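Q: I'm teaching a short session on how sequence maps to structure, and I want students to see two examples side by side rather than one. Could you give me a first protein with its sequence written out and its structure tokens following it? Keep the formatting plain so it prints cleanly on a handout.
A: Of course. Example one:
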Amino acid sequence: MELTTEDVSSKEESTVDAQKFPDVRLINGVPINLNYRFEPGHQDDGVTAEIPLAQLNQLTEEGFEWLVPGLYAEKLQALIKGLPKNLRKQFVPVPNYVEACIDGMEYSSGRLLEKLAGFLNKLTGSNLRASDFELEKLPPHLSMSFCILRDKSNVLAVSKDFNALKRQYAEKAGAQFQTALSDALSSTGSKKWQFDEIPEQQTIQHQGQELKGFPALVDEKTSVGLRLMDSAEEAQKTHKDGLIRLFRLKFAKELKKLSRQSAITTSQAFSYQHLNPHPHCQRSVGEDIFDDLAHQLIASYFADQDIRTEKKFDQAVQKNDVSLYAKGYELSETISSLLAQHQRVMEALNKWRNEKALYTDISQQLSCLCFEGFIRHVPADQLEFYTRYLKAILIRLEKAAGQLEKDAVKAKQAQFFEKKFWQFIASTDTAPEDDSFRWLLEEFRISLFAQQIKTRQPISEKRLEKAWAARFN
């Protein structure tokens, strides 16, 4: 039977509490209709979110994890009671801790399990992790169900696994979103700013559904377009690349000179083209080292601004009161130096091919530092520190003879944190180069293998553990 007033209200109440059991919840800024059913044992028992296919890519799982306010306390209690006994005994009596969580945690802010673990740790000093909660033990009605709608009444799929639905239907969702754009904001082939103010979002109507689109400049290599994207995250990345291209078109004369007159040698340009792809994530690649140099140079000057008007674009251009070519040449000198150092490291490392553990560990480190297209992605101010990282490897190789066992112990210390980090990166759409923890890992290796090179900040296993834990609290 469908959920009735009596099912969700006390006997004294005559109407459903709309705040506890809302008909609509805002998820990632998108209004999502909710249906309720009270029928233990039925596959639809609990709350079902109705998601139009065209809006699927705009949503993430985290907003749905909190269910609705009317079931929030029950879900928290079930999660705590479902902990393994050795952990659960720290949170007795459970109702008291549930009440403290409701009072102290901001509802629907972040990932539920991470927030819950972090809050309970603060209360008790425990070391609870999000992975300690056993979701499979939850009663079915305490996990959201999802109904994907092809149109207002045509059901495409139903499941409790949001991420599985998104993997299966993301491409179709994007295609349907694009079919709704016939009258929406779009243009192509622009070589200079010729747009009105670009809004951060735009609402469109499609088959009786209200869809939210996110306008972004699009890099077309020799020009720039304007297009609606179906997710804010994708729009942000696309708009940044579009802005970089527009600035590159504006400074085409200076960048052409840089490609012909830089500190980068022909052999370095050739070796750069033969670097291997990043081992843990897909990274875009430019035409050659000079394309990536131009991209990074412009990004270092302009890409930190979310420019959406011609006035702000012109202001950003005028603010560049230093010769772009001169700054570009300085960056090319940094790149030339690090590539020369990389070549020295590779030559030294090749002598250790027979020491598999050492050779493999350093090869892995290098593949995450100097991967195909890395100049395009690693911020210019971070590239300046590459010679330190590479020098530390040379020092490690010089010291390795006669103390391989000691070296292996240190390598395992570094690998422990690196494995966690790269697994996290692989499970998200995060750019590792923009993550400060990524560079803490390199500083930690310096502290382990080349203490004579001073680290940029105090670093140790304990500091890394604390920094890692802070990410999820």
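Q: Perfect. Now a second example for contrast.
A: Example two:
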Amino acid sequence: MKRILLPFILLALGIGCFAALKNMKPEPSPRVQETFTPSIRALTIPAKEQWHAHVQAFGNVQALRIIDCVSQTTGEVLFRHANLEAGAAFKKNETLFRIDTADLQLAYAQAKSAQAQARLTLQTEQQAAALATTEWETHIQAYPQADTKTLDLVQRRLHVEAASEHLASTSEQLAFTNRQITRGTITAPCDSRVLERFIEQGQIVMTGTPLARLWSTDAVEIPIALSLDDAQALGIAPDYIAEGQAGPQVHIHAGDTNWTGTLQRAAGQINPSSRMLTVFIRVDNPLAGPQPLVPGLFVTVDLYSTHTASVHIIPRHLLQANSTVLLVHTTEDHMLFLQEQPVSCVRIEGDTAIIDGGLKQGDRLCTSPFQMTSERMPVHIDTSIKEAP
């Protein structure tokens, strides 16, 4: 019997001990959950400012005009300028080559002789016509019924006309021969520099033989490629031509040297491969400054639009992917919280975003990075840190 009751007794003792220990446990104190409020930096939005669209592009300087000097007559090259080598500079009308024109001089003398003979023939015919006219008038007085159908022939008017046309023909031949002689002297068509020389003194050249290649030093141009967005921001249409209208301001620099240019024209078509629009910048008197702007130089071109707009300019990284920014708002009990604000971004320029809508002066823009935010998330502005993006 005792063996049967012993387990029940032990179980009762265990339950009693557990109840006693449970009553001895102190009551847990209630735990107050603390709310974490992140500290942020904020940027106060200033008043709107006037903004010009700015586009930076790159390009190589090219000669505005490349001139191929070509022989217009046949003969031996009797003279070549001693300095006619690549890189040499020449003034307008300075003689570069002289080609032998002895055969043309003979042709000129013959043409001049033919002209004199034609002039004599004309004068003779004019005198004969005057005499025939006098005789005809006497004949008409004696015979009023005479036939007048052959009047031009009788008065030698056709002879005078033929002699006059012949004189004009010989005069044209003389002028043509004289032009051929003058073409034997090749001069610089403008202030220029030599790119390449093809012939030497003593060589025989034919009509059309290349002699030298020059580039005009009065101006150079720089073709640059713009995206369609950049072209639109600058107000440049694909068919743009300056024609006296005020175009974008153009500043060119290479290293520490700067030049000023003008936008002359657009290519008139979009490049089908790059989807870019090519425009051409012109710089007058490129060799006039302390540092010449020569063909082949790689330069940076900054273009600024002539029209302005009132905008807010903020750091680019503060603009979120969905065209919103984080603004700091204040509740009625002076608590701060974040809220997304949609904005209208007209352009991205480098590290800045150009905003023309959605912000106003005095707004506080959160500049601290967040992995994620919640709607109306409470924040605290850390005033120990100066406002900065």
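Q: What should students look for in example two?
A: Point them to this: Residues 120 and 167 are 9 Å apart (CA to CA). Also worth mentioning: The chain has five helices and 23 strands.
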